[in-house]
């Protein structure tokens, strides 16, 4: 088994990254320093390739990919990407098991300070056109939480890991499914821009973060950073999505958590206040009564 593992590592190192980066029309090995642990390089797949890699930081300027690219963040923490937009640098956030989607031949400049671990798929432009029946234009997407797309990419990586040379029918089926999901994702992004509000996956990320951390102090800028937006745009789009300002939403979450703790009866009102992020018991009492019409003590008694 040890010899087999060593062989895989040597093949991965020799193959290098399959992602066809270009700069000024020249091929560029922009991931020469990455460790590629899984690759479909020798499997004879048609118009699609997949790799699993580990990259210790990245700084690139005006690169393009000669193919449509979709990658899943395999880390257990968000991947932070500083992306150049015009003359500004903006931070994009890719949560665990979420996606970076980069259309073919669209330039990008990135700064990534942390280690990234990813599974990425490249779809040949002609292959996508053959499956879709037309050219598809879609913008880059950062942090897309589409689970089906992620599952398709993981399935392709699993096939490459198994050395699936003969299972081209399965690969073709997955490639077709991936194309249709990319088309649907592009349509969803366009609908979200017209409709306004936060994309569902980013809204869910913020909501889950607040609910899991009700005891801590929140600045709107912290939540905006989590959603990958400026403070102004985050506050506006969050209210469009939820009907509440970020501050109002945090207070609602604290009160809901306080209700749960009060019903359990295992803590005093003062302890509940501390565990739910209120300044003190009086602060909890005032806020609780404003939102429910009852004091915390009265709520606790009514629940029993």
Explain what this protein looks like in three dimensions.
- The protein is elongated and about 70 Å long.
- With 304 residues, it is an alpha+beta fold.
- A hairpin with a 2-residue loop joins strand 1 and strand 2.
- It is built from eleven helices and ten strands.
- The model is unreliable at 1-14 (pLDDT under 50).
- The protein folds into two domains: 2-195, Jelly Rolls, CATH 2.60.120.10; 200-303, Arc Repressor Mutant, subunit A, CATH 1.10.10.
Shape: elongated
Largest sheet: 10 strands, antiparallel
The CATH first-level class of the largest domain comes to Mainly Beta
CATH superfamily of the largest domain: Jelly Rolls
Order of helices and strands: HEEEEEEEEEHEHHHHHHHHH
Low-confidence stretches: 1-14
Strand content: 15-25%
Taken together, the total number of domains comes to 2
End-to-end separation = 61 Å
- Computed over alpha carbons, the radius of gyration is 24 Å
What is the tally of beta strands?
10
Helix content: 40-55%
If you average the pLDDT, what whole number results? Answer: 85
Total helical segments? 11
Write a brief structural summary.
By secondary structure, the protein is an alpha+beta fold.
Please write out the topology:
Elements: H1 2-15, E1 21-23, E2 26-27, E3 35-39, E4 48-65, E5 68-73, E6 79-85, E7 88-94, E8 99-102, E9 108-123, H2 125-132, E10 141-144, H3 147-161, H4 168-195, H5 200-212, H6 220-227, H7 231-242, H8 246-264, H9 269-275, H10 281-292, H11 296-303
Antiparallel strand pairs: 1-2, 1-4, 3-4, 4-9, 5-8, 5-9, 6-7, 6-9, 8-10
Helix pairs in contact: 3-4, 6-7, 8-11
